[in-house]
Amino acid sequence: RISIAGDPKKPDIEGELKFVNTSFTPTAVNTEFILEDEIITIENDKILLPNFRIKDRENNLAKIDGEIISQQFQDFKLRLNLNATNFQILNSTEKDNELFYGKVKLSTNAKITGDFVQPVIQMNINLSDDSEFTYVIPANTFNHANNDSLTYTASLANGDGLPSWLHFDEA
């Protein structure tokens, strides 16, 4: 329940959004996210997410803690922390999304600051050993000014070859 009162130019907005036994599956990632008993609190120019917990289908947990601050619900500033352990973020096939697909579980500790236009995300990510991910670079994404052919290659940042578990297919 959310209450809106006061001056229409600077309303007093307070309340809570409660999620009880709720789940949703974004089409782009085809992963079910479950909210068992979670609350988002609104206090005028703040959206508070205290210990907001999201579970995947296997009950792995992602936790968001922090706040989003705005001036009259414009110019949002982010102050969020995200922690997840073996959390499934992607469960799709090429049929679901031809540009990126696979099964991906990750563990992370992340700090999200900045704003909606230019968020700053500091994070370490570890993918589970059984994660599989495909990202397709569409044809004609890169073009040489003289119509010369371009060759794609992939290596680690230090120039070493890719590890055996990571594949780069030149198609």
Keywords:
171 residues; mainly beta; 9 strands; globular
Describe the structure.
By secondary structure, the protein is mainly β. It contains no helices and 9 strands. It has strands spanning 2-5, 12-24, 33-43, 46-55, 61-71, 74-92, 100-114, 119-127, 132-135. Strands 1, 2, 3, 4, 5, 6, 7, 8 and 9 form a 9-stranded antiparallel sheet that branches. Strand 2 and strand 3 (33-43) form a beta hairpin. The radius of gyration is 21 Å and the shape is globular.
Give the arrangement of secondary structure elements.
Elements: E1 2-5, E2 12-24, E3 33-43, E4 46-55, E5 61-71, E6 74-92, E7 100-114, E8 119-127, E9 132-135
Antiparallel strand pairs: 1-2, 2-3, 3-4, 4-5, 5-6, 6-7, 7-8, 7-9
Question: Kindly state the mean pLDDT as a whole number?
Answer: 88
Low-confidence stretches: none
* Percentage of residues in DSSP E strands: over 45%
> How many whole angstroms does the radius of gyration measure?
21 Å
* DSSP summary: helix tally: 0
Largest sheet: 9 strands, antiparallel
Computed structural class: mainly beta
Count of distinct strands: 9
H-E order: EEEEEEEEE
* Overall morphology: globular
Distance between the termini: 53 Å
Binned, the helix content reads under 10%
